Fold:
Amino acid sequence: MRIKDIAREAGVSTATVSHVINKTKYVSDETREKVQRAIEEFNYHPNAHAQMLALGRSNMIGLLVSDISNPFFPEIIKSIEAAVFSAGYNLILLNTNYESERAIEYVRRLLQMKVAGIILMIAEFDSALIDEFKNNKKTSVVFHDLGVVGERMSNIILDYAIGIDEAVRHLVSLGHSKIVHIAGSHEIYSAGVRQQAFVDAMKKYFPAEPESKIYEGDFRFEGGRHAAHQILSEPELPTAIVVANDLMALGAMQEFKAAGLRIPQDISIVGFDDISFASLSEPALTTVCSPRVEIGRRAFEALALTMGKPRQQGLEIRIPTHLIERNSTAPPRPAKSKRPA
Structure:
């Protein structure tokens, strides 16, 4: 069946059938029901390419993530996929591997495909991404932490500072003062935000003390192990560590255990994200929760607000974080200059 066959059966024009299918113009309830009955009776499936030509965009949504192997992302992907499916769209998932050049190239390809919208759940940033969307008048976009709000552009902001401050306050309440931070890569925007939040929290609770040490990781398990190895080489060990994400926290825990340290008796550790493995580690990891289901749901809501609406302003949505206390934190051990014998 072709669209003109459906139009003949329903007794309407092909333009009316197109408006019913694509929801591009108001059609009365009586006429819409006629068209829908004809579509169902003859099991008609619209030609996706023809729809794209008619609308100037496809029914595809592009989703970019930084690292599909990182347990932080699956819940976000699942949440967005559910919302995309319910709204009648299809999802294209792309992995950037924390490479900004790859992110830019993927965005260009998606724009060439005339996707209806793009959601960027990525940590890497390049101003060229903003330029790509400012030069495009048809595709809506939602950034995560990185973007600006404008026509067809929204930004989801995770409030890292609230969670980091809670983490430091929790450690201070246990009696810790020798607290250090394992940060993400300095090239990643959100790593810098978390690091600055840690520095600000330490100044808040210890205004007269020198700045705490920062050890750089890469948001991956091995990065946490490497940072922990650096910490173990210091003449004096900290009593507690705030880590920029859970994967590095788990890597650090493994390295400390291999060196004979007990967690939390010898060293307390707080992660960030609350990935599924955080509650399964031994001991269970105290961490800051990033509500990923909510992040995904709100991201698609923001995208849907602007899709098909050329001058619609996007939204800035701020999502809070909160500390989840488990078993990887405890009061500090007595003074210790080196790892256990």
